[in-house]
Amino acid sequence: MLDKLVDRRVLASLEVCVRCGICTESCHYYRSNPKTEHTPYYRAEQVRRVYRQFLDPVGRTFPGWFGAKATTDEALSKLAEIAFASCTLCHRCTFECPFGVETAEIMRVMRSVATATGHAPEMLVELANAAIAKGENPDFFRDFYIEQVKELEREVQDRLGSSKAQIPVGQEGARILYVPLSGAHTIVPQAILFNVARESWTLSMFETANYAVFLSDLPKARRIVERIIKEAELLKVKEIVITECGHGYPAMRWDAPKWFGHTFPFRIRSILEVLDEYVRKGRLPLNQGQNGEPITYHDSCNLGRKGGLYEEPRCIIRAVASDFREMTPNRIHSFCCGAGSGLVAVPEWTDIRLQAGKLKADQIRRTGAKIVITSCDNCRYQIGELNEHYGLNIEVTSISELTAKALA
Ligand code: SF4
Ligand code: SF4
């Protein structure tokens, strides 16, 4: 199995590390708690030992020379813990490594192995399976969902003071299929903005969350994405727009075409790109004065380093708020908040998650911001918990909500 998972990119990362240690300080786990086992190369080395045992010809012949190690059930559990709980796949270390070693990709392979051998966290497996079950029988959920959406539509109408505002579901021929997460906070502000911008849109039956991505279970990840692709084809939309979700956006935009082996007959964008376009084209009447408190922005690793969305959120924030302060460092060098790649969904990992988030908490405190914006729900949850744990006295919100608040 390992040989199928180790492609050239991973193989290069397994082979070229010279253990120089330059990446040590790049990892938020190490910076928050400096221990050898929190360094990127220590983690990757644990997987390299397995690789040497099974795939490296010299390691197979002379296991003692290169530390090749037998893989017992206990060893697999330990490796699974390393891959799932002590690396958020944030990719920051890759940008510090002179050879571009992708520790996160090595960890992703380890996650695949752990998932296939039954060592993945049960909670992530259950969440992925629930998403697949919903995709297999959407009619079972439809009436209840539409009832809930009607309630949210009334909230949108109240906030806009107009009974004409709508949240359409399943509307064939709409230009945009908007894919939310499961909370109202990913539907109401966006619906307000679509209505004000007079957009042609319809709400997806499904959520963009894809827990199989965290499990590195590609067949399941593909099935979860497929639900939305089929819906888009059925409704003949021109574009799929993904809500403010860290992993959901790169999964749909960058990974799905690879999983399916072709591109799709519709565009795929993040809501951030759409709102940025509305701002630039003057489609929203905005008043910066509505958001006068100091504000900072946390770059989600998935949207930023992996998704390339750095300027769009900043353009929107500058248009809707009057006191924007950058964290240092930011953009490509931004530190992970500590919750990425599924950590936030597993209660047993709360302590390690909060500890690894100390660096982000310190960064936020230094800005003096009272409001922290993030465009990923995992980051949003984590920063909310960091707020309580480290006493930051901040409010955490999304770009969509901040923009909806700035409507004149
Ligand atoms: S991953 Fe790169 S920076 Fe880190 S120890 Fe290996 S070669 Fe050095
Ligand atoms: S990918 Fe991120 S969390 Fe994982 S070792 Fe590198 S810096 Fe640390």
Description:
The chain is of the alpha/beta class and 408 residues long. The chain folds into three domains: 2-120, Fumarate Reductase Iron-sulfur Protein, Chain B, domain 2, CATH 1.10.1060; 125-277, Rossmann fold (3-Layer(aba) Sandwich), CATH 3.40.50; 285-405, Rossmann fold (3-Layer(aba) Sandwich), CATH 3.40.50. It is 52% helix and 7% strand. The protein has 20 helices and eight strands. It has helices spanning 2-5, 8-16, 28-32, 40-54, 57-61, 73-85, 92-96, 103-116, 122-136, 138-160, 188-196, 211-215, 218-235, 248-260, 271-280, 311-320, 350-356, 358-367, 377-390, 399-405; strands spanning 176-179, 201-203, 239-242, 267-270, 295-298, 324-325, 371-374, 395-397. The strands form two sheets. It has a four-stranded parallel sheet. Strands 6-5-7-8 form a four-stranded parallel sheet, with helices on both faces. Helix 4 (40-54) packs across helix 8.
Summarize the structure.
52% of the residues lie in helices and 7% in strands. It is an alpha/beta fold and 408 residues long.
What's the structural blueprint in terms of helices and strands?
Blueprint: H1 2-5, H2 8-16, H3 28-32, H4 40-54, H5 57-61, H6 73-85, H7 92-96, H8 103-116, H9 122-136, H10 138-160, E1 176-179, H11 188-196, E2 201-203, H12 211-215, H13 218-235, E3 239-242, H14 248-260, E4 267-270, H15 271-280, E5 295-298, H16 311-320, E6 324-325, H17 350-356, H18 358-367, E7 371-374, H19 377-390, E8 395-397, H20 399-405
Parallel strand pairs: 1-2, 1-3, 3-4, 5-6, 5-7, 7-8
Helix pairs in contact: 2-8, 4-8, 6-8, 9-13, 10-11, 11-20, 13-14, 15-16, 16-20
Bound molecules: iron/sulfur cluster (SF4) (2 copies).
One iron/sulfur cluster (SF4) binds at residues 17-23, 40-41, 97, 99, 101.
